[in-house]
Design a protein that fits this description.
The complex is a heterodimer of chains A (223) and B (224). Chain A has 11 helices and no strands. With 223 residues, chain A is an all-alpha fold. In chain A, helix 2 packs across helix 5 and helix 5 crosses helix 7. Chain B is mainly α. Chain B is built from 9 helices and 2 strands, in the order ββααααααααα. In chain B, strands 1-2 form a two-stranded parallel sheet. The longest helix of chain B has 27 residues. At the A-B interface, helix 7, helix 9, helix 10 and helix 11 of A face helix 1, helix 7, helix 8 and helix 9 of B.
Chain lengths: 223, 224
């Protein structure tokens, strides 16, 4: 992982999450945004309503429409804030580990912890964003690209004639996200831990080949 | 059993229906001699085809039974004679598309000459299918929404089928890789294809065959 990218991301997280710096109005706005993600993750994007968001957040309808044009707008803004924070959190976890393989595992573990601790929000971020489309899906693609760029940092350690295909990062991130979507759709987020060794094999093997993949697999199994 | 097919042609006016003839998307008006059970099945097939098209046009967020019924040329009450709700129809469309994809890949692999890798042939056939039917392919590649729980199960079945094909394509060279790795590789491949279709790169799909083949092969390959 690139340390400078992680440091910058870490500063951004601090700004976003420092609750003491928020005005009462901003606190209400944040509650509405979390409410939008929670409701979408609970009942699905198609069935979500402003009324449900207000019930969750305790805000008034007038306040909601002072902050957002619509539920779609609220979801898109909430999505952007949360996916940014999650991305920063993953990079922070990764930069705390020594070596690329260890960084990858630390990032994936942090991601899985989030999925298990906040499954409803995770359903909104990973599953329902495909239903929502639009601005939220564009933010999803940006976040995917950033994580992919972090994975690609290992290319510098691979010989020129052994470079993996250009789309490797995208392929790997897609595989990890599909595993998350699967357990969320099944309603059993804890099962994501079963996938960790295979996903480590997929990720490490896609860049470094079978031998490193098997090592990563065994390490993840022993975690 | 007669297997109905829809073809993109105008209604025939040259005589009565005969069994085994592909039916046009729009049945001829008036007396056409087509048995009632085939008319019903024809409606169902039109609804399934329309679902893929309308999902591509409106997305999961906007698609309705009215959109699908109108595209299929039936009333919404006819829609509900065939499907309990929107998601039942999505599931039928999903299963039908997944079956067509698997049949296409299996047929291509069975017809391949020995010097060609089964993996490369299968990928080429899969990508050709996606290029020909991008709307349907987007349906099976993208994750299903929360409300569509049965589709998530159908997706797992498709992943298992494709992973089985991937294993067979390697013959006896499967090695000692983890048992679920092939399922993860298929998951990643579908996400890869879904993104390419979503980015409007349908025309370029055929060129991605060698790259996708390398991506599927690399985690099992020894480093130099």
């Amino acid at each position: 992982m690139r340390p400078e990218a992680c440091a910058a991301a870490g500063e951004a997280l601090q700004v976003e999450t420092d609750a003491r710096a928020l005005t009462p109005d901003a606190t209400v706005r944040q509650g509405e945004m979390e409410g939008a993600l929670h409701v979408v993750g609970e009942v699905g994007y198609r069935a979500a309503s402003v009324r449900a968001v207000l019930e969750y957040s305790g805000a008034h309808r007038r306040q909601f429409y002072e902050h957002f044009d619509s539920l779609e707008d609220c979801f898109a803004q909430a999505y952007e804030a949360w996916i940014e924070q999650l991305g920063v959190s993953l990079l922070e976890a990764a930069v705390g580990a020594v070596g690329w393989r260890e960084s990858v595992q630390a990032g994936i573990v942090r991601l899985f912890e989030f999925v298990v601790e906040r499954p409803t929000i995770a359903r909104a971020l990973f599953l329902e964003v495909q239903v929502a489309g639009g601005a939220a899906l564009a933010k999803h693609e940006e976040a995917t690209e950033r994580l992919g760029a972090a994975l690609d940092s290992v290319r510098g350690e691979i010989a020129a004639d052994e470079q993996p295909p250009e789309a490797t990062a995208f392929f790997v991130v897609g595989g990890i996200e599909a595993a998350i979507c699967d357990v969320l759709a099944e309603g059993n987020p804890n099962r994501i831990w079963d996938a960790l060794p295979e996903l480590m094999h997929l990720t490490v093997g896609s860049y470094l080949g079978n031998e490193a993949a098997e090592q990563a697999f065994e390490e993840a199994k022993g975690r | 059993m007669t297997r109905l097919q829809l073809v993109d042609s105008e209604p025939r006016d040259d005589g009565p229906f005969s069994a085994g003839t592909p039916l046009p998307r729009r049945l001829p008006p008036g007396r056409h001699g087509i048995p009632a059970n085939l008319v019903t099945e024809h409606q169902r097939l039109r609804l399934i085809a329309a679902m893929g098209e309308m999902l591509a046009e409106h997305g999961y967020a906007g698609v309705t039974t009215t959109h699908v019924s109108e595209r299929a040329g039936v009333s919404t009450s006819t829609f509900y004679k065939h499907f309990g709700n929107l998601w039942d129809c999505v599931l039928a469309a999903y299963v039908a598309t997944a079956d067509r994809l698997c049949e296409r890949i299996e047929a291509a692999c069975a017809a391949a000459e020995p010097p060609l890798s089964g993996l490369a042939v299968g990928i080429e056939a899969g990508l050709a299918f996606v290029a020909a039917e991008p709307a349907a392919a987007q349906l099976i590649c993208a994750p299903a929404p929360l409300e569509a729980t049965a589709i998530a199960a159908a997706r797992r079945l498709l992943i298992a089928r494709l992973a089985g094909m991937l294993r067979r394509s390697r013959g006896g060279e499967a090695g000692e890789a983890p048992s679920g790795l092939d399922e993860r590789l298929i998951d990643a491949s579908l996400a890869f294809i879904c993104a390419r279709v979503g980015a409007g790169e349908v025309e370029r799909l055929a060129e991605l065959g060698p790259e996708l083949t390398a991506l599927l092969d690399r985690p099992r390959r020894a480093a130099a």
